[in-house]
Design a protein that fits this description.
Chain lengths: 241, 241
């Protein structure tokens, strides 16, 4: 494992808690506008539009479009369902940018700082540059470099998304480890020759949807990752940081 | 000035001391190979090929090519002049990558950390992503984001280089300040609406070519920059960090 020089991170779900973050942000804006809302349902509904929107781009039906624009379009689609269609233009924009203000998991900032002492730490997210930079400032995520999105011009799990990120660092895929809480992301990275680090995030979809790390450890098929960790501090410990 | 949200930095000369860095690196490699070399002359000669190589790309005679490749080609051009044409392939590559191992000026790391508390700090250099990331790790330059080069696909001082960097951050040019030790860079940024911060680097071309900051202050033509600073700590102080 000493060959690994860079850790490339999935961000939504792996490093930040998008569901609580979006729920808290929409609550503030809804309260201000005296709108009653189920904030968790809203967060899930907005996130549900995420993959279908990117899929149009992956299929080649649409040219590469940054996530801030997809989030804006997706919010328009679901806003009337949640009584948010009467928001002012300013509040609507503030809500679109809620993705720039997501909180890290409790271990994220500290764990990244430890990992940064020994490795290049990079985002390899579908989030655009401005989103990633603003989120990093907001939640104290000290990335060495923002990759993914505009830098690679492809959305994960397309192979080019991973390969171009490694190439931007002038590293071979086996010198890069994809770090993610999601099997599909790790599998796609692994198929391109990258090393893999799984991070357990049982609360990504809320406490009622908790799952146990033993499910991951017990699974011997696709989930044969190089590292399986409880959180980023644990990953740092396992990697000798 | 409170509108400024991001500082975009020129790097070679402004943040790192390329001349001493290259001279020290070539000395090591030359000594190992028992080659006698005037290391400062070599650094100047290599750097002299920098602008002409990029100019071909700016003129549209060549597609965008990263600086590591231009450095490699330029080294080939001048190597026989300095007795370096018999280097092994490994030593040649090590020398090409000397630009990844340049030292910051004494104030650079500390000054950037201060500026980072209040602003997004970004590279807006012609250096490619891998070069910038490796240099940052080597010299403890804690950038929030690496812009320039591949991210913008244009070499400074082309207008698009500045405009695309601001756009990547979703900021208007007037919300971004170009920070550089070079008037041409600041002038080009200023013409696109960016704010300007001059940093005095009298030793960039060696101590024998020292010039005084009064030359800058006294000049009332193109050099009417928003901030004129002695170094990055001074700039941080002036910006209230």
């Amino acid at each position: 494992m000493l060959k690994v020089k860079a850790l490339l991170f999935d961000v939504f779900g792996t490093v930040v808690d998008w569901r609580s973050g979006i729920a808290n942000e929409v609550k503030k804006i809804a309260n201000k506008n005296k709108i009653v809302i189920n904030a968790n349902d809203f967060a899930d509904a907005w996130r549900a539009e995420y993959q279908p929107a990117m899929e149009e781009i992956r299929k080649g039906n649409r040219s590469f479009t940054i996530l801030d624009i997809l989030h804006m379009e997706n919010l328009k689609k679901i806003s009337s369902r949640f009584g948010l269609d009467k928001l002012s233009s300013d509040d609507f924009d503030l809500l679109v940018k809620a993705w720039h203000r997501l909180p890290g998991w409790p271990d994220s900032s500290e764990g990244l700082n430890k990992l940064k002492t020994k490795f290049i730490i990079a985002t390899q997210s579908n989030g655009n540059i401005a989103l990633m930079v603003n989120m990093a400032k907001y939640s104290n995520l000290n990335w060495d470099v923002i990759l993914g999105a505009e830098v690679v011009g492809h959305y994960k799990p397309e192979p080019e998304a991973y390969l171009k990120a490694c190439r931007a660092l002038h590293l071979n895929p086996e010198e890069c480890m994809m770090v993610a809480a999601h099997d599909d992301d790790l599998k796609a990275a692994s198929l391109q020759g990258m090393k893999t680090g799984y991070v357990h995030r049982p609360y990504e979809y809320g406490k009622d949807k908790l799952f146990d790390i033993s499910e991951v450890n017990d699974y011997k098929g696709d989930r044969s990752w190089d590292f399986i960790s409880k959180d980023l501090n644990d990953l740092a410990y396992q990697l000798g940081c």
